[in-house]
Design a protein that fits this description.
The chain is an alpha/beta fold and 319 residues long. It has 9 helices and 11 strands.
Length: 319
């Protein structure tokens, strides 16, 4: 697999010859996709959107056209995010739009959120008078007495006193199992439960936190292949059949699942699958070659070789 032999000559091994240009091919694709994606993003950034349009609640995946839509551009601005062709931005905006269309972004509303790492959504909700209780996860042997909110306060979104008033945190295993909340949202959480079945069970359990009429919004992974998938892993990949089965179970319990739409789009960036590494790390190319490389569109992505995207799942608790 070495490019060169010990004395500096090209390695004539067939496997080495077959793989030595993979970096170049990968980065050629990323350079082209990033160039045209940046042009799309620049046009979208020029649009001024004063309010989100009502689109109708749906359970669905991101599509290129979403990134030029009123609703996504509005919430991107509210979270101080550049309108990048990135599924992470779409997930935040999808959650905000779902809560908005359900009338749950207003004073006095209270809910729970499940996510890891940084996220500006709780700060955004606090700026609008919405209370969010964040359910944190960490091994019991490696966590402080109480979870903190470090990195979740965004000074350009909400004042510190309002953030402290409306945002709190608990360890997930100390949180109530049954509650009377207006909403629950979870981002990049369902597929980190250890198995597909555990993720589906966690979504069903989250319904118990809602009052009648409350809203559950989950964004997670969707494997676009219908045959094989990852299971029993730190990251699992759900498929269409898993969401369809979950929807059937929830409807049987009387809950209302938003219409499910598996259309993945037909525009050029709907057909582009970003591959690791997602940044310049992991390549042997000189830094000056990569310094001006625009980030490639990240709507579809390869996860352990499976073409994946995000999926937003929306359920209204039975009345």
């Amino acid at each position: 697999m070495l490019r060169l032999t010990q004395d500096g000559r090209p390695n004539a091994n067939g496997l080495s010859q077959a793989t030595r240009d993979l970096d170049a091919m990968r980065w050629n694709l990323k350079a082209l996709a990033g160039h045209f994606g940046a042009e799309f993003e620049a046009r979208a950034a020029q649009r001024v959107v004063l309010s989100p349009a009502v689109t109708g609640l749906a359970s669905r995946s991101p599509r290129q056209q979403d990134f030029a839509s009123d609703w996504l551009l509005f919430w991107a601005r509210e979270t101080r995010s550049a309108p990048r062709l990135h599924r992470g931005l779409w997930e935040s905006c999808f959650i905000a739009q779902s809560l908005y269309e359900a009338g749950l972004i207003r004073q006095g509303v209270r809910g729970a959120a499940m996510f890891d790492g940084r996220n500006s959504m709780a700060a955004l909700m606090a700026s609008m008078g919405v209370a969010t209780r964040i359910h944190r996860t960490a091994p019991a042997y490696d966590r402080p007495t109480a979870p903190d909110l470090e990195g979740l306060h965004y000074t350009d979104i909400v004042a510190r006193d309002l953030f402290d008033q409306f945002v709190s945190a608990v360890w997930a295993d100390d949180a109530p199992v049954v509650d009377d909340l207006d909403f629950v949202w979870a981002m990049q959480w369902m597929h980190h439960q250890g198995s597909i079945q555990a993720g589906l069970d966690a979504a069903r359990a989250a319904m118990q936190l809602l009052r009648p009429g409350g809203l559950l919004v989950i964004t997670t992974e969707l494997n676009l292949r219908d045959d094989e998938t990852l299971d029993h892993s730190p990251t699992v990949l759900f498929q269409r059949r898993h969401f369809q089965a979950l929807a059937e179970d929830l409807r049987a319990d009387g809950h209302v699942v938003a219409a499910i739409d598996f259309d993945i789009g037909s525009d050029v960036f709907d057909r582009y699958v970003d591959t690791p590494p997602y940044g310049p790390e992991g390549t042997a190319f000189p830094p000056e070659m990569l310094a001006r490389l625009a980030a490639a569109p990240h709507i579809k992505v390869s996860v352990d070789g499976f073409p994946c995207t995000s999926f937003g799942f929306v359920v209204t608790c039975r009345g």
